[in-house]
């Protein structure tokens, strides 16, 4: 049964997937799960050594082809470099997991950190979508999955630039879903809650109700591709998303988020 689902997944999206931000955490988990589903991989991150370690493990465990591309997605030329590296490959799935998270009050942050967040979190997915999705459209099949966050559903004091950029990704994915769904391309934004990754440990590390493992977030998100534009993994997280999105006044939702990020302000 599992093998049949994985074969159907590969048949739906093709033989190659790209994971941006793949050196650890959710990105590495996406890479491993896609390898289990039989897809060959192009992995992108800044840290070459960490990226190659992930790739070696996937090759050994899954026997798929894995290519590594060490680059900074904040670089304006990154999309062109990715396109050159993918020449000759029929890419069927784009996973954008890379993110920059400036911490602390916005007015006290170094503007270079804010600019980095905009470059990685906003311009990065825009540029890769523009560079890579036209090929999917020509073939009449493909998928795009953007990782967002519950922090993108309202203002988040202490991580203002990050939460604003994640809100951008939600709207970007929903609009793309509307434009591309009749052309054979599935688009999904995953609004995850806190996930115990190395990045989250550096940010906070607190255990919160409803926390899912990276592997569970990844598996559920990939299974949700093609079922709609937005996905929140986990029942507790879906309840939280519904409350802050529909039931609570905005000022209350912002206050709740502020309590979760108060150590950064």
Written description of the protein model:
This protein is 52% helix and 15% strand. It has 265 residues and is of the alpha/beta class. The protein has a 7-stranded parallel sheet with strand order 3-2-1-4-5-6-7, with helices on both faces. Strand 4, helix 5 and strand 5 form a beta-alpha-beta unit. Helix 2 packs parallel to helix 3 and helix 5 (111-139) runs parallel beside helix 6 (160-180). It is globular and about 50 Å long.
Characterize this entry briefly.
With 265 residues, this protein is of the alpha/beta class.
Helix-and-strand structural type: alpha/beta
Number of strands: 7
Largest sheet, strands/sense/barrel:
7 strands, parallel
Beta-strand residue fraction = 15-25%
Task: Please describe the topology of this protein.
Blueprint (H helix, E strand, L loop, with lengths): L1 H12 L2 E5 L4 H12 L3 E6 L2 H15 L3 E5 L7 H8 L5 E6 L14 H29 L2 E8 L10 H21 L4 E8 L5 H6 L10 H11 L5 E2 L3 H13 L2 H11 L5
Parallel strand pairs: 1-2, 1-4, 2-3, 4-5, 5-6, 6-7
What descriptive keywords fit this protein?
single chain; 265 residues; alpha/beta; seven-stranded parallel β-sheet; 10 helices; globular
């Amino acid at each position: 049964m599992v093998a049949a689902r994985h074969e159907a997944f590969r048949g739906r999206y093709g033989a190659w997937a790209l994971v941006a931000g793949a050196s650890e955490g959710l990105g590495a988990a996406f890479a491993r799960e896609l390898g289990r589903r039989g897809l060959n991989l192009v992995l992108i991150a800044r840290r070459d050594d960490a990226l190659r370690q992930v790739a070696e493990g996937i090759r050994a465990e899954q026997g798929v082809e894995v290519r590594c591309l060490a680059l900074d997605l904040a670089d304006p030329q990154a999309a062109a470099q990715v396109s050159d590296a993918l020449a000759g490959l029929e890419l069927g799935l784009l996973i954008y997991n890379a993110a920059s998270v400036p911490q602390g009050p916005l007015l006290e942050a170094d503007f270079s950190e804010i600019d980095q967040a905009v470059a990685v979190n906003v311009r990065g997915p825009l540029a890769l979508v523009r560079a890579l999705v036209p090929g999917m459209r020509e073939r009449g099949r493909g998928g795009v999955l953007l990782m967002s966050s519950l922090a993108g559903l309202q203002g988040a004091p202490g991580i203002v630039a990050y939460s604003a950029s994640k809100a951008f990704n939600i709207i970007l994915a929903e609009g793309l879903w509307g434009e591309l769904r009749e052309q054979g391309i599935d688009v999904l934004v995953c609004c995850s809650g806190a996930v115990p990754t190395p990045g989250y440990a550096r940010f906070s590390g607190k255990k919160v109700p409803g926390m899912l493992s990276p592997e569970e977030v990844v598996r559920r998100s990939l299974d949700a591709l093609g079922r709609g534009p937005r996905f929140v993994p986990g029942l507790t997280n879906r309840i939280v998303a519904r409350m802050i999105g529909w039931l609570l006044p905005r000022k209350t939702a912002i206050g709740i988020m502020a309590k979760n990020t108060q150590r950064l302000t």
